[in-house]
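Our working data are protein records whose layout never changes between entries. The record below serves as our worked example for the rest of this section:
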Amino acid sequence: MGLVQTKDQQLFIGVDGGGSKCRATIYCADGTVLGTGVAGRANPLHGLTQTFESIEASTRLALLDAGMNESDSHLLVAGLGLAGVNVPRLYQDVINWQHPFAAMYVTTDLHTACIGAHRGADGAVIITGTGSCGYAHVGDTSLSIGGYGFALGDKGSGAWLGLKAAEHVLLALDGFAVPTRLTDMLLNYFNVTDALGIVENLAGKSSSCYAALARSVLDCASEGDAVATAIVQEGADYISDMARKLFSLNPVRFSMIGGLAEPLQAWLGADVVAKISKTLAPPELGAMYFAQQEFNKSLSVHIGTEAKSCI
């Protein structure tokens, strides 16, 4: 298996996989960072092959960054925090993967983000990046909100902002919606002159392609465009309501993670902003903590079984 049978010597790799990228970091057992690698998206909802390729690619880059060989993945105990594995079928698909690691433990990216944000302590977290979702863990109680993926959910996310902007612009170009700065923004962004040019660039594309428009939507809102403002505020109101629902568990800490976490704060409810605490560690460290915990459990079971066999 390649496992180092002592807790203080085993190397771990924490993987954070989402709709835009996959980041992997190799750690010593004490949390010391040895190397990091970043590859493409790793959300099983958008394809298992892409997910596994991104995990392997980010692992290879992390190994090289750590001064190790690309073939040394068999020395690592992996913790995978992935978007999409809240769907039972996809979770089974991932855990049945013939992975390259010494051992692999899988959970949602929400779970590992929460562990990392509060360094293993109880708390709540909202991810607002390509997608959006919320999670809280207090004592023996957990609450998960959203995480249904684009375009069934992810309201308030980067992908949702881009989608809503594109929907309005296409209606406006056909004369069925009020004018907006978003129209020129989209036409210029794709370097096209009409609605079909926009459609050609977005139809059938991934959530990350829509999320790439989010910053421009936020810029238009900040400049006072009424349509962009309404879109951003609707998304932010949803994120605020999500936070309030998580607060019902009375978490000690609450953090927001993701590319839109900071720019969205200006649009959130004051009561929500007042409770935001600094993220203490990245999701990859949360994935490492999760893997370490599960690995130590397996070691305890293994040692206990060996002890019984000697009686």
Q: What stands out?
A: The longest strand covers residues 11-17. Residues 1-5 have pLDDT under 50 and may be disordered. The chain has eleven helices and nine strands.
